Amino acid sequence: MKVTVASNNGKTVAYHLGRAQGFVVAEVVGEEVKESTYRPVTESVPARGARLQMRHGAETGGHGHRHGHGCCGEEGEAEHRHGHGQGAGHGIAVVTTIQDCDAVIARGAGPGMIRNLAAAGKKLYLTELTSVDEALNAFLKGDLKPAVMSV
Fold it and tell me: How far apart are the C-alpha atoms of 22 and 51, rounded to whole Å?
């Protein structure tokens, strides 16, 4: 099973899943991490209006977003892209980047990203933990519960 943690720097859990700059992807066997790597979101972003085929034939195109700015205390956030201008294309690139993963851990996710993950068959786990290692350990112990998602 592959579990991924949204992270902008490979160490802390990203607050905004849909605008994460990368992911720590962990290969989990039983109750331990066998291998983990950092995977930046570098997939080419589809042209505006493009659609990503999802599980069960659902498509996603999305639209812009609204958010508060409560995330800026995160390590590495001084240089992060807040997503203004990234919009749905970056969200699609995020889902494409983690398409081979089964579970996704983040500190927060907007409704569009939640729909995209549900359509792609991914389980989302939200946490208040800020360390990638702590979040993975909590997942392995069963301390994280899946978020309620619908398409």
Answer: 21
